């Protein structure tokens, strides 16, 4: 049995992150704002090859793209 | 932002002793008097800056240490499975290990970042190099100078605030997406021992093979499919723990560093104040002597 999210190429962490985001968004207004701060991420990353760095990219969008590629 | 404003002041402070040596005490009283006054002012400003940074760091420290306590529970609970299963790194012929270094983007916090880099260099000298994933600008700068070939991924943008689990998850995903299969993954972070001492420590994160080969693993009855989920999730958990603890260490270390800086600035201000008063007095005495000699000379005529 393979779950639908796995077939869509998501990793377990991504699956959890999406579930957590959904729950945060369904909270009441005042609590939601505090909770949503916990889901923010300003991470940037660069891939290195042979001692050279590539451009800095946003982790969240890059993750989504990589997972879309994996989907079957 | 604060660190940038502090920089010119720090540089000015570094330049002070050379200028003081160039102008021997007591010659040309007026010039040095003004110079000392200027220096006093800049020292006062610097003291204010370092003191503010200290206060900011202390308030952040309370929040960071609370986050650390909470994240430690996560990390320890997720490690419990592997402890019960007695998971060990398999003795493979060709080891391919990956080390994740958890530092941060900000400096001015003592030697915690260079402590991590030094630990990595020592490990590489002992066991040969392995691949690196670096979180945070500071360690990236240090390690890209010494081991540019080992770097695989670098992350930036952590350490501004208390790290979130979303950060840890995103990093864990990127690590999982790396093309190479690693036999073992280690996370290097600063362990918070007490407010003044931190120790670079490793957390093990195991590969799927290592988990299935562990002696007591059959007790858990984990299905084959969810195994990779467990691995990914435990990596994110460990990362979150490491990031939160590293963050708390950084804040505490910054607080100490800024405390020392404020103390040193205070000492220097005292010294300069004494020097200023002395040379002011010398100038006054000098003037008095001149007036009196002038007066007596004209009275005699």
From TrEMBL, chain A:
InterPro entries (UniProt xref): ATP_synth_F1_esu_mt, ATP_synth_F1_esu_sf_mt
One GO process term, biological-process aspect: proton motive force-driven mitochondrial ATP synthesis
GO molecular function: proton-transporting ATP synthase activity, rotational mechanism
Pfam families membership: ATP-synt_Eps (PF04627)
GO cellular component, one term: proton-transporting ATP synthase complex
Gene3D superfamilies per the UniProt record, alphabetical: ATP synthase, F1 complex, epsilon subunit superfamily, mitochondrial
Family designation: Belongs to the eukaryotic ATPase epsilon family.
Name this protein carries in UniProt: Mitochondrial ATP synthase epsilon chain domain-containing protein
Organism, scientific name: Emericellopsis cladophorae
Taxonomic classification: Eukaryota, Fungi, Dikarya, Ascomycota, Pezizomycotina
TrEMBL record, chain B:
Annotated GO CC locations: mitochondrial inner membrane; proton-transporting ATP synthase complex
SUPFAM superfamilies assigned: ATP synthase (F1-ATPase), gamma subunit (SSF52943)
Main subcellular localisation: mitochondrion
Sorted UniProt keywords: ATP synthesis, CF(1), Hydrogen ion transport, Ion transport, Membrane, Mitochondrion, Mitochondrion inner membrane, Transport
Locations listed in the record: Mitochondrion inner membrane
A molecular function GO annotation: proton-transporting ATP synthase activity, rotational mechanism
Keyword Mitochondrion: yes
Topological type in the membrane: Peripheral membrane protein
Any coiled-coil regions, as ranges: none
Subunit structure: F-type ATPases have 2 components, CF(1) - the catalytic core - and CF(0) - the membrane proton channel. CF(1) and CF(0) have multiple subunits.
Homology family: Belongs to the ATPase gamma chain family.
NCBIfam families listed in its UniProt record: ATPsyn_F1gamma
Protein name: ATP synthase subunit gamma
Organism of origin: Emericellopsis atlantica
